Amino acid sequence: MEFVIELLSATMRLATPIALAAMGAAVCERSGIVNIAMEGLMLIGAFFAAAVALATGSPWLGLLGGVIFGGLFSLLHAWSTVTLHINHTVSGAIINILAAGLTRFFMVEFYGHPGSSDMVQKTLGDLNCAVPLLSKIPLLGPVLFDQSPTVYFMYFFVLFTSFLLNRTKLGLHIRAAGEHPMALETLGISVKKIRYIGVLYSGLLCGFAGSFLAIEYGRFFTEGMTGGRGFIALAANVSGGWTAVGSFVAAIFFGFIDALQLKLQVMGIFKIPPEFFHMLPYAATVIAVAGLVRRSRPPADSGNDFSIEKEM
Amino acid sequence: MDKLLTGLKVIAGVVGVVFWAASQFWGILLVLLALGIHMVQNFSRMDREDAVKKLKDLGMSAFYPAVGILAAIVLGGLIMALTGYDPINAYKAMFYGGLVKNWHISLLNATPLIFTGLSIAVAFKAGLFNIGAEGQYYVGSMIATWLAIRFSLPLGLYILAIFILAGLAAAAYNIIPTWLKIRTGAHEVVTTMMFAHIATKYSTIFVRNNGGDPAVSKHAYVTDAIQEANELLPLKTIIPGANYRVHMGVLLALVTAIVIWYLLYKTKIGFEIRAVGANKTAARTQGINSGRAIMTAMLIAGFLCGISGTTQVLGLEHKMYENLNAGYGWNGISVALLAGNDPIGVIFAALLWGILDAGGQYMARTTQTPSAVVEIIKGIILFLILAKYLYFWFGHKLFKGRKKAAAGEAA
């Protein structure tokens, strides 16, 4: 029982960055922009979260810094795909390259050496707090409600994203921008504006996810610390059928695999090199994408360039 | 006269390439001369109108890269100035280091990038983004190292076998992602990326099992050296005066680029690959089996990454390092994008990247400017060259501004 609770609790925690970024992906992709830049956005978020947390000593300000810089950097993706009409995948690849370069440059600038940043003294992970009453529920209580604040934020953003996409006017516009942008434009609503909002939303949430990696899950920023999580979040979104709740479920699956490999490593039942365990989440991602992608349908106009001049 | 020029062109081209590969920087001037003669010959055959039009096209296609690189250098200088470094000195060191002092390092940097750049370009031609080239590079390196540590045969036959086997293994590594793409539509960006992470994780185990075990080995995190008979010959055995580190792989890379160009533009399968990449539906109505074309392109892409790793192991490093973070696969993406997926363009894009890397290291050593500046400059170059619409956008903004001002004055 102890083991199960520990495993599931770690699942929720490890699913958090993937779920947060996958929420961003859901909104961004539904607005019609393919975002493979999420890896880079998370990296930027992680770097600035650690930098601000180190400079101010406050993990909350660090989180804010990570979210803001993730958002700012995502505007570059929005600008290049929406305004400058660059192919979305190409733009995403460039942004990932730029993010790796920028973080390396600032590493040397801020800390005098590449590699890892200094250690953050107080992280969000230290602010673990159990929700009164709810955490007393057997099994589910400690798993869901005895976590660090970021995990609760993640619950909120899953609900918020689902509400935003399905129940609000803006959500309707976002979905229309991805399915049939011309129809939206005919109503006098700027497709460009909606797509900018979609990319910005994903940028803010990727910044959040990056902050989680740097100042909750860990205590410092390391070069390339996202380790493909941006792409796993993309996979979670695809496997989840481009919906908020579906992406959340898929993210939990990936979190579970990650938690499982960590536990198996610690238990040492299998006498094999630890790297085999590290491969597990990547292999699971391939299987999930391959197995589930056929059942879901991408937004009809996702990845296509939109310019009103071309449509007329 | 025409025959004389053709002869001169061929001689200048071949001699230029040879000296250029022999780490004599000025060899490229001869290559440029050959290109110049080629153009003059072509233009003299055309009438005036066609020639002017052709010249304009050429100018336009040279315009974006030139402006992009210049603007990136200016922006990079600005960043350096803002963060308290001396951009003039830094650039002096960078270009001196990359083009003159350490030209052979630029060449060595460019060699694996030519292969990986070609790999990504071929996949792009079929409409696929082989973002996981890094993984295939690792697979090729591992197979090559494993084979080259254990066995050897005289006459270089075995080296050929290593190249083929490592290439095939890396190509095979692409089968599952490509098959999934064709059968289920699983996006290759996600699947090849995951495969790349799996391969890099496995490489640590591989290095430990082949001599890199810190418990038994003096050199932790490095495999044993490969057998001497399996090392690629240094270039100076055929061209005296070449830097001792430069190896035959440089010539192999140049030849491969030409082979890939031929394959893409002069063969049936190349046509099918390009047709599927340009328009899948149209290709299908022409009776082209799109799945087969995609699979072929991805297998070629994997093979190229495999021989990229093999060249690096057999030619330069002679062993494999753990977590070497060489990033030739990732950088190959930039190279292919920069070259507009043109196989011949890949050579020059890879050289530019190689020069920037070698120059950046020299700059970091001599002027204490962080070499990561180079990464930023690379990113800006890519962005400015790919965002062709940027120039129209700026023009539009400027033009609109003027028009508004004019309207204001009139009112």
Task: Explain how this protein is built.
Chain A has helices spanning about 1-30, 40-55, 60-85, 90-110, 140-145, 150-165, 170-180, 180-185, 190-215, 230-240, 245-265, 275-290, 310, and strands at about 130, 145. With about 300 residues, chain A is an all-alpha fold. A two-stranded antiparallel sheet of chain A has the order 1-2. Chain B has about 400 residues and is mostly helical. Chain B is globular. The N and C termini of chain B lie far apart (about 65 Å). At the A-B interface, helix 4, helix 10 and helix 12 of A face helix 8, helix 9, helix 14, helix 16 and helix 17 of B.
Q: Could you provide a short overview of the structure?
A:
The complex is a heterodimer of chains A (312) and B (411). By secondary structure, chain A is mainly α. Chain A has helices at residues 2-30, 38-56, 59-83, 88-111, 140-145, 149-167, 169-179, 181-186, 191-217, 229-239, 244-267, 274-292, 308-311, and strands spanning 129-130, 146-147.
What is the share of helical residues of chain A? over 70%
Largest interface: A-B, 43 and 44 residues
- E-strand count of chain A: 2
Structural class of chain B: mainly alpha
CATH architecture identity of chain A? Orthogonal Bundle
Q: DSSP strand (E) fraction of chain B?
A: under 5%
CATH class of chain A: Mainly Alpha
